[in-house]
Amino acid sequence: MLRSRFHPLQTRPSVAVPGDPGPGDRRVSRWTRIRARPSVRVVTTELRPLVAADAAEHCRGEDELTVRWLTGGHGDLARTVAHFERLARNAAAGTGKRGFGVWRSGRLCGYIDFDPDVEVLEPGEVNLAYAVHPWARGQGVAVEAVRLVCEVLQTERVGRRAAIRVEPENTASVRVAEKAGFTHARTLVSPTEVRSDGSPVTHRVYLLDLWPASDVPAAQPGQRP
């Protein structure tokens, strides 16, 4: 069994990222979690901002489960690059949805984003959404990515609680939420999403407090209180 050696959220030395869709190269930080089995191997999970050069590998990582539970359809290269550009603009402004690629020992293996402006959630709740490429499933990648992005929220002081909305039939995502320390808080009936039979989609909402009650940060500009 792998033993975790976790380094609290740290800003690694900033690195220039060629191919960034913004004006010139940006300076970015990476969030890293290291899992080690002594004398055998070291496995790292990292969150990094996504750039245009990642789009093709991101699209290749989509399968029917990704489409069913997250995207609703297969992405193409142009729309994926445009999505990454929007995420980069939001990150630069410090508002709206922000996303990361998930890397496993140097290979892109998934995606995670957070959004403090999902209207069906309560003020202060920040929605998390994620997907893992088929080859990397069953290795704890999603759980580690969720834990890392929660530390991003704490470092950037975004929101009061992290929220994962999941359809009850998506048992793999339910396990991710539970293993990451989230608890089931309530069930929502989607006002917009419907199943193939016309019935509304329901989501369980799992929550994780990001702050002790005595240390809840004030809402940042552009965020709901």
Automatic annotation (TrEMBL):
<dbReference type="InterPro" id="IPR016181">
    <property type="entry name" value="Acyl_CoA_acyltransferase"/>
</dbReference>
<dbReference type="InterPro" id="IPR000182">
    <property type="entry name" value="GNAT_dom"/>
</dbReference>
<dbReference type="GO" id="GO:0016747">
    <property type="term" value="F:acyltransferase activity, transferring groups other than amino-acyl groups"/>
</dbReference>
<protein>
    <submittedName>
        <fullName>N-acetyltransferase</fullName>
    </submittedName>
</protein>
<feature type="domain" description="N-acetyltransferase">
    <location>
        <begin position="45"/>
        <end position="211"/>
    </location>
</feature>
<keyword id="KW-0808">Transferase</keyword>
<dbReference type="InterPro" id="IPR051531">
    <property type="entry name" value="N-acetyltransferase"/>
</dbReference>
<feature type="region of interest" description="Disordered">
    <location>
        <begin position="1"/>
        <end position="28"/>
    </location>
</feature>
<dbReference type="Pfam" id="PF13302">
    <property type="entry name" value="Acetyltransf_3"/>
</dbReference>
